[in-house]
Amino acid sequence: MAPAEQDALALREQLFHERVRECIICTLLFASLYILCHFIITHFKKHTDFAAVHDDEDAAVNRIALGLCTFTLAVALGAVLLLPFSIISNEVLLSFPHNYYIQWLNGSLVHGLWNLVFLFSNLSLVFLMPFAYFFTESEGFAGSKKGIMARVYETSVVLLLLTLLVLGMVWVASAIVGNDAASRQSLYDLWEYYLPYLYSCISLFGVLLLLLCTPFGLSTMFTVTGKLLVKPRLLEDLDEQLSCTRLEEAAVSRRISSGKASCWLNLNVELLREQFFTIRSKRRKLELRHRASPWQRNLGYPLAMLGLLALTGISVLIVCFHVLELLLDDAAMPRGIQDASLGQVSFSIFGSFGAALQVVLIFYLMVSSVVGFYSSPLFTRLLPERQDTPLTKIIGNCVSLLVLSSALPVFSRTLGITRFDLLGDFGRFNWLGNFYIVFLYNMGFAGLTTLCLVKRVSWAVQAELIRAFGLHKLPLPVTRSRPPGKPC
């Protein structure tokens, strides 16, 4: 065999082994995420929906739908980890460029992960989750033999009609937006134009949802932190308050147990019970604060609040700096690349520290968006409950989390949180090249986050000062309104 043929054969063998290695790594990663998501969904699902006591067919349908939900949630978790994994991989390759044990961590693997997440996100949003919902609601066509296959046939027909309806609406919308000959010709290209345009609309909706939920979630996290941690109080005698609350609780308890009304006042037992429960709740909170150590009471809460303030402030500063870059340099616009050149240059001017900060901010913004999503009045009903979440609500949660998580890479790159360019089809979204959309998006995030932060912090400081100086105990002025028709 000639040397040239041997070199070509060795190259093909190397490519084959690299492809097999990437497939094994991707399979192991997804299997780990799938097992983790299975335990998460099992923790929240309603047990009666999956019991095979009453109807084996319904139980089997619910288990199939549960598997589809687990797959979708695993894809959502993979989309969350996608950008941090890429940033960390780049820094690892920069730190150890010639290490033999990390040669498997290359641009081909990262690019393949981006493509798989994009493909599975489309598959879950367009087919799997609608199929799971219609499958649980189906009963089979009238006159057909009952069974799993009858439900599969009905679900497939309904899903096909829904797909035609959605594709037709997207076709009409794209025809209205692009009225030139090239756009009309591209409408007939299903794979290269049609589906990316559909997912571009979904990603735009997800990014807008992140824009609305993240500032609200940042504000909610300050409130939740104040409830979970013991807050230090200024000018407060905790022992005296606890003693007074115990005496008040005992007095109300004696009045309820006696059941006797005084000669001048009728005894309202229901009102006294509500008052007793309120005082008891106050007493338990005071006891919890009294049992807390001085370190926990005086150091834990301030450090947590300072951490939230620091992360929020850094995010706003990065976005403001990115706005200036958008005005001065076109290279600051989010763009997509087809080749992941890892290990060549750091994506932060501060090196590994800046990359680690980017990863922390990405996770922080994702957690804030999820908290804001479940705290908003429109989506509060979707909040899962332990061992009491029906299957339809699980499907709704999986779809919502997938929309938020799949938009996270675009969200982070659009705001300038990271300089890691979007890989694969994530960078093919039509609206990413529109300067006005990107600029207004950055301005909206900076304005809403600053407004929520200032209002939450200023109100908290004002309320604490009022309580510390006892101004909340002062009687409020009462204004008497003159009845109509009577002179002064």
Explain what you see.
This protein is mostly helical and 488 residues long. Helices cover 72% and strands 1% of the residues. The chain has helices at 3-44, 56-95, 107-137, 148-177, 181-186, 190-228, 238-258, 269-291, 294-328, 352-375, 391-406, 408-415, 435-468; strands at residues 336-337, 422-423. A two-stranded parallel ribbon has the order 1-2. Helix 6 (190-228) runs antiparallel to helix 9. The chain is globular and about 105 Å long. Mean pLDDT is 78; it is low at 261-265 and 478-488.
What is the element layout, followed by pairings?
Blueprint lengths: L2 H42 L11 H40 L11 H31 L10 H30 L3 H6 L3 H39 L9 H21 L10 H23 L2 H35 L7 E2 L14 H24 L15 H16 L1 H8 L6 E2 L11 H34 L20
Helix pairs in contact: 1-2, 2-3, 2-10, 2-11, 3-4, 3-11, 6-9, 6-10, 6-11, 6-13, 7-8, 9-13
* C-alpha Rg (nearest Å): 29 Å
Percent helix range: over 70%
- What's the helix count? 13
Strand order of the largest sheet: 1-2
Please sum up the structure shown.
The chain has 488 residues and is mainly α. Helices cover 72% and strands 1% of the residues.
List keywords for this structure.
mainly alpha; 488 residues; 1% strand
